[in-house]
Amino acid sequence: MDPHLLRTFVTVAETGSFSAAADRLRYTQSAVSQQIATLEADLGTPLLTRRPVTLTASGERLLRHARILLVRLEAARADVTRATAPPGRLALGLTPLAWSAPVAAALARIRAASARLQTRLLVAALDRIVTATATGALDLGLVDGFTAPSDPLRLPEPGDPGALRVTESPAVVAVPAGHPLARRTSVDLADLADAYWIDAPAVAPFGRLPVDGLRAGLHYDGAEVTVLTGLVAAGHGLAVLPAPLLAGSTALAAVPIAVPRLVHRVELLRAPATTAPEDPATHLSALLTG
């Protein structure tokens, strides 16, 4: 199967539209239609229905394989590029809440050891960091989320099955300092079904909390942690955040969560290529997980 045809198929499946896929890929709509028809003829089965555009059963099966195949192709390209690139480069990606003082200190040690180290730092949403690390566009990825104590994060495809735990800290409900909940010693999230929450997909994904019935009163599409905490402090809604983030804050109060038991977990993802012992990514990985 031609990778270009697979990429077009995945784009149509993700956008749900031939015209939207054409815009994203910068093709004409007729070119997209022709590529899908060529792929269907090659496999001998319809992959998509038209009007509306939906996946057939065969299309759903192919989509699972296609995404993995495309990631592996990008990983192969990145591996070859890395092998021929000049030494002394480090590409690190992280989700906003994965950044911490220990991470900054570890990165400072790596950079101090090599004055010529070219460092790239990408802060982005979980899906992007996972994909960029899996394809080798990043040497290391630091991702975070909320989970039961000692449970690994549930990562989107193609997540790293060998992800390493970096830190675990208590998860708390962040509320304004003067909020009635600020005086509580603990809270059950299910009891806050009538409260307004802030949905910040790139920072603290509201939809990934293991509680049904909570509702978002405000959607924040940015990735600035200080903006999110400022919105909470101003009374726009509540958010589940790692307890260390609120330490020393006079504008926010941290209310421990009794039910469900949750921790904020940071994990380290590594690019699929094997790195040499003296590689900066290897040193940084050892500092973060040692």
Map the helices and strands:
Elements: H1 3-15, H2 18-25, H3 29-43, E1 48-49, E2 54-55, H4 57-84, E3 89-94, H5 101-113, E4 118-123, H6 126-134, E5 140-147, E6 164-176, E7 187-188, E8 196-199, E9 215-219, H7 225-233, E10 239-242, H8 243-246, E11 252-259, E12 263-270, H9 280-289
Parallel strand pairs: 3-4, 3-5, 7-11, 8-9
Antiparallel strand pairs: 1-2, 5-12, 6-10, 6-11, 6-12
Helix pairs in contact: 1-2, 1-3, 1-4, 2-3, 5-9
Question: Brief overview, please?
Answer:
The protein has 290 residues and is of the alpha/beta class.
What brief labels describe this structure?
290 residues, alpha/beta, Arc Repressor Mutant, subunit A, D-Maltodextrin-Binding Protein, domain 2, 3 domains, eight-stranded mixed β-sheet, two-stranded antiparallel sheet, globular
Structure description:
This protein folds into three domains: 3-82, Orthogonal Bundle (Arc Repressor Mutant, subunit A), CATH 1.10.10.10; 88-166 and 266-289, D-Maltodextrin-Binding Protein, domain 2 (3-Layer(aba) Sandwich), CATH 3.40.190.10; 167-261, D-Maltodextrin-Binding Protein, domain 2, CATH 3.40.190.10. Helix 5 (101-113) links the parallel strand 3 (89-94) and strand 4 (118-123). Helix 5 (101-113) packs antiparallel against helix 9. The protein is globular, with a radius of gyration of 22 Å. The strands form three sheets. Strands 3, 4, 5, 6, 7, 10, 11 and 12 form an eight-stranded mixed sheet that branches. A two-stranded antiparallel sheet has the order 1-2. Strands 8-9 form a two-stranded parallel sheet. With 290 residues, it is of the alpha/beta class. The chain has helices at 3-15, 18-25, 29-43, 57-84, 101-113, 126-134, 225-233, 243-246, 280-289, and strands spanning 48-49, 54-55, 89-94, 118-123, 140-147, 164-176, 187-188, 196-199, 215-219, 239-242, 252-259, 263-270. The two termini are 43 Å apart. This is HTH lysR-type domain-containing protein. Pfam families: HTH_1 (PF00126), LysR_substrate (PF03466). It comes from Actinoplanes ianthinogenes. InterPro entries: LysR_HTH_N (IPR000847), LysR_subst-bd (IPR005119), WH-like_DNA-bd_sf (IPR036388), WH_DNA-bd_sf (IPR036390). Residues 1-56 form the HTH lysR-type domain.
